[in-house]
Amino acid sequence: MTDLDALKYTSEHEWVDLSGTTATVGITDFAAEKLGDVVYVDLPAVGSVVTADQVCGEIESTKSVGELYAPLSGRVVEINDAVVDDPSLVNAGPFGEGWLLRIEVDPADADGLLDRAAYAALTGGDA
After folding, report:
1. pTM metric for this prediction
2. Where N6-lipoyllysine occurs, residue numbers (predicted)?
3. 10, 33, 50, 127: which could form a disulfide with 123 (CB 3.0–4.6 Å)?
């Protein structure tokens, strides 16, 4: 089980697990629940550069289409092909098998992200 208190969060409902200079990114359980059943995930190509707070992908559900925002700037080093093949993994395990991409980042940039308590306050305690 992922330690949710060790993660960083964005106001756009992404989570970040920073390990050295690699940030693993996904959407939170709050976002996955609001989206409903995820049926399609479009992620940036490995090697592409993403910019913090800019759209870098798309998540479609039976209810709506949501944009995926890059929580940090950097180069995409890996995408979760399993989620592309089976988007329901986002709903089944948003903090586990449902991760979306890994970005090579400057770890200092993560200082501006939210901690778990701040993210819970943002979502009205539903996080």
Report:
1. 0.94
2. 63
3. 127
